[in-house]
Amino acid sequence: MRVPLSWLRDFVSVEVAPESLAETLTMAGLEVSKIDLVGRDWDRELILVGEIVEVRPHPEADRLTVARVAYGSGRVAETVSGAPNVRVGDRGQKVVLALPGASFLDPESGGQRRIILKPAEIRGVRSEGMLCSERELGISEDHSGVMILDPEVPVGTPLQDYLGDTVLDLDLTPNLGRCFSIIGVAREVAALTGQALKRLPPDALALSSEGGWRCLTDENPRKATTSYVSVEILEPELCSRYSACLIEGVRIGPSPMWMQNRLRLAGMRPINNVVDVTNYCMWELGQPLHAFDYEKIRGKRVLVRRAQPGEEIVTLDGVLRGLTDQNLLIADEGGPIAIAGVMGGLDSEVGEGTRSILLEAANFELTSIRRTVQALKLPSEASLRFGKGIDPELTVPTLQRASLLVKGFSGAAVSPEIADAYPVRVEERVIHLSTGEIRRILGMDFPVERVSAILESLEFQCVKTEEPGTLAVTVPTHRLDVSIAVDLIEEVARIHGYDKIPATLMQDVLPPQRSSPYLDFEEQIRDVLAGCGLMEVITYTMTNGESVSKLDPGKREPDLSEFIRLVNPVSLDKTVMRRSLLAGMLETVCFNSRFSNQLMFFEIGRVYRPLPDQELPEEEHRLGIVVSGPADKGWWGGPESGMVGFFHLKGILDVLFGRLGVVPCEYVPATYGPFHPGKSAVVRAGGEDAGYLGELHPDVQRNFELPDQPVAAAELNLDLLFGRRRERRYRPISPFPAAREDLAVVLKEEIPFHEIVSVVMEAGSPLVKEVELFDVWRGAKIPEGEKSIAFSLVYQADDHVLRAEEIKETRENIIDRLSNALGARLRE
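and the corresponding C-alpha cells:
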C-alpha cells in the first residue's frame, strides 16, 4: 500500500519527518518497508514548469517540431521535439522543461547511470532544452508523449515543488484490511500522533439538487428499485450490500493532472476520468467501485448471483474465462457483466462512446472473493481489499464521493436516487473491557480515562459502566478485526507503544520441564548428518501425480486412490499428500544443480497414507537422504576425489546408525522402484524393513532432469528406528597393544559381507575387536560363481598382552566357523 504524504495530509496533519513517521507506524504494526522520495533528483533550477508559446514545423524533418517554451521572467527556450502530442500550432499547454545541465536517470540502464542534458543541434536546428515525458522523469514507463500539466500551475515553478512528494510504502499484514486506504492510514496516524482526523468537506458528498440523495430499498431488503435500474441480490450470504447510482451526460476524457499524479504515486496507471475516479476513491476511502456502460445493461436489471455451470465471461483483459457455481457474478438479463469483486466484463466496459454510467459499490464475502481469485488467477486491487474484508457502511458514501467527482470533471448529471439493496446489516458490537484485564495481559496499569482516550482516538465509542474500571466499548463498523476484549487490549498496547510497556517477570512457579525423547532423536539425526556434510532441506508435504510418476523408470501414472486427496488444493501442482520424501527432494536437487555440483541433502518429514474405513491417515516420520557429485570439493593442489555413490551413502548410514545406537542393521540386496537394479538394498533393523537405499535408475534421473552423475538416495522409517535404539554403554579402553592380521577366503558370490562379519565376530569373541574389508576379487584362479574376500582382523585383550598361541587359536576357530557356516575356504 503506497501512501503519498501530500494525499495523507488531506486527512491528518503530518508534523514530523517522514523517517520519524515511518518508525512510529512500524512500531504500531503498520510496517513501512520503504520511503520513496519522488522528485528528489529533479534539479530545482533546471527542471521547471514551462508554457508552450509557439510550435512550428522543423524545416528538415517531417516528424519533428520546434517549440518555443516560456519558463518565467521573460525567458524562452527553443526545443526540438518528436513527441506526437506536441503539434504545429499548439499554444498555451503547460509542460515540463529541462534546461541544459539537468541530469536524469538513464532508463535504458535500469536506473544505474545518469545522463547530463546538453544543448544540441538536431537536423540543423539548435535545441536549448528538452520537453520531458513521464519515463524521463522516472514517474512511470509512459514514453508516448510529453507530460501535459494542469493549466493553473504557474510558469517557472520548480517541478519538484509541483509534482515532488514523499511516498510511504506499507507492507500490511492480512488483519490490517482497514488500512488499505488513505483515510485508514490517516486514522492510525491521528491516533498515534495525537492529531485530529480530518473529514471530507461537506460539499464532497452533498448533492445540490432539491432533496439531496435518496437511498431506495424495497420492502424486501434483497432488492432495490429506482427509476433507472432494479437491483436484486440472490446470494445474500455472499453479498451483504449492493449500491448503485446513475450518472448521465458523461464525456470520457483524461482526469485532472492532480488526480493522475496521485494515482501514479500510489502505483496505478491513469486511464480516463471515470476509471481514474473509481480508482481514486478506492484508494482514498477503501471501497472498490466499478463503472458499467449503462446503455449496455440489458433489461436495466442487475442481479448478484452464482455463475451457472458452463457459463463464461470475457473480462476486461480480453480473456474468455470459464466459471463455476463457486464464482459470484454481477449479471443482467442477458448474462454476466462482471466477476463480483474481481474484474468487470468487456461487454459492459466504459469506452470513449459511453455517455451514461451505472456506478456500483458492493460488499462481498471475503472467502468467496479469495477462492475466485485463486481459481481464476486474477488478482486485482479490488479483490485485494475485498479479500481482507470491507466495512459495508462504505458503499453509499463512496458512491456519493465518486459521482460528484465525475460530475465535476465531465459536466455530467447525477441521479439523486441510489439503489441500495442491503439484506445483511451490520450488527452493533459492544465489548466490556476492564482495566484489571488490561493489567493481567499487559502487566501494567492503565487508568480508565487513558484507555477511553486511546480507543476513542481510533473511533471506538466508550461508556463507563456501573462496575468500576470497566468500559462498554462500541466497535466501529470498519473494525472487522475486533470481536473480543483482547482485541481492544491490543489496540491500547499499539497506540500506547509496545516499547513503553515495562518488562515484568512471571509471578508464578515455572511449569516443570519435560523432555521429548523423539524430538531429541530427530535433533541428534540432524547433528550427525550435518557433521557428515549434508544440508537439511524442507519440501512441500503436498505433491501431484505427475511428480510422483517421475519416481517410476517408465513414468507410469500412480494410482491416486492410494493418496490423500486435497479438497481445496492451494495450486494445481499440490493436489495430494505425499507418500514419499524422494520426489520433492529430487526436485530440490534438480533446482540446486544449477549452482553446485556437490549435492548432499537430507530431510526429516512426514508422509501420509490413507487407512481403510478411517477418516484420518497414517502419518509416518521419515528420513530422506540424497547425495550426488564429488565426495569432496577438491583442492588447488590436486584433482577432486571420486563421485559419491551407493557405498558413500551406506557409509553415511553406518555412521548415523552407530551414533544413534541403532544396531545391528543389515543391508539386504533388493530391487526397489526408483533405483538401479543391482545397486539398491533394503535396510533392516531388528529383523524389520526400516527403509531402502540405492543409486537412482538412469530413467528416473532423466525424469527429474538431474545431472549426468551418480545420484544415491535413501528413505528410512524413523518411527521404527526410534524403537530399535539400544542403550549405549561406554567401555574402558584397553591399555594393551592390539595385533592386526589379514585373512582372505573364497566363498559363494551371493553371500554378503555382513554375514561374514557376524560369523567372524562371534567366532573370534572376545579377542576380535574389528573386521575391516579391504579387497574383493573375482576372476583368475577364482571359480565361476565365487569371490575372494580379504579383510583385516584386529585382536586385543582388555586385561593382558596377547600371546601368539591365543591369536593362533582364535584364527583357527574363525576359519572353522567360516567353513562350517558359510562354506568358505582359505585362499591359496
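(Above: one complete record from the training split.) The first strand starts at residue 2 and ends at 4.
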